[in-house]
Amino acid sequence: MVSALLLFLTLPVVFSADPKCPEGFHYFKRVPTAWNNYTKEWCLGVIDGKEDCSNRDFARSICINHNATISMPENKHEFEFVANVSGPGATKMNHAIDGQMSPRCVNKYMKHFYFFSEEKGECNLKRGLFLFDDINTDPSYVLDHAQDHPTGESQHQVNKTTAMVQSIRSCLGIYSAHETKEYYSRGGFFTEFCFGQQLNEYNIKADYSRTVVCGRPPL
């Protein structure tokens, strides 16, 4: 009887404890909706891959190694947490996040250069332009704050005798808060090459993400 009473008294303590996130992750409460799979709480971490995290497969593997999935901020509070993570000496750092343009839309972009916010079909920015890995995060905040034309292209030749190679920036990322105020006020979201650094039209390596935003449920 005494042992049963002690067990009953300890139960509220056990179940009232705040959820915890693994080391390197930060805890956030969320409003559960159908768009985030009714997720009430989520852990986000900005993981330094030490290499080119703009390579989408590499970025995914970094998150998997932390028992997480590539993710993104769902609201302003989460965005500010991610954007304020900087590199050594408070330098700017780009962060790879969830969101990769669908192959069908990449094909359309290669053929016809236009603003995806004006596209009425499946490649509209707010509809099917991007595909997402994380089913527990609503991408609406990111899409609402992305630029009207969140893509870019690059062309280069190895030499004058080779064919022109065209590359499309089709994976989402975030500028850190140490980027220009202009970009920060527009939400700080951008697109980068999904397969890592590329040469631009001046044969100069483009900027790339060194970190990746990973998400997972609390412990």
TrEMBL record:
Signal peptide boundaries: 1-16
Superkingdom of the organism of origin: Eukaryota
Keyword vocabulary terms for this entry: Signal
InterPro entries linked to this entry: CTDL_fold
Name assigned to this protein: Uncharacterized protein
Organism: Caenorhabditis brenneri
